[in-house]
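Pipeline run #58 for the internal structure catalog. This entry was flagged by the ingest filter as a single-chain record with no existing model, so it goes straight to prediction. Upstream metadata was stripped on purpose; only the residue string is passed forward. Reviewer on rotation: M.T. Logging verbosity set to normal.
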Amino acid sequence: MKKSFRIKKNDDFQTVFSKGKSFANRQFVVYMYKKEQNVPFRIGLSVSKKLGNAVVRNRIKRYIRQSFTELKADIKPGYDFIVIARKPAADLSCAEVKGSLIHVLKLARALQGKQSNPLNKN
């Protein structure tokens, strides 16, 4: 994922927290804020030290970024997202992280088009 798709500045984080809406499941909390311009979405990540050491935290962030990269075509443009990982996220595989993020993004109505959940094998 390109660095232009990431939220890094504290002011941007605070804007999304204060003006955005939150959606959650057991593994993640996602804050979503609609911007004025219809530019590509951006994501910011927050993984607490309570989840584990640096190796674990970096793995979670890598899985989240990879999931957003794979879902890039299905996510509505013009939004800023902040993803906060909760404790159960530390034990998930990459496919499980993607499935959990799809679930939260569906709750937030942030996905356009149909997206199948890789965990549901029908």
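catalog note: The chain has one domain: 3-107.
catalog note: Residues 3-107 form a domain with the Ribosomal Protein S5; domain 2 fold (CATH 3.30.230.10).
status: ready for reviewer M.T.
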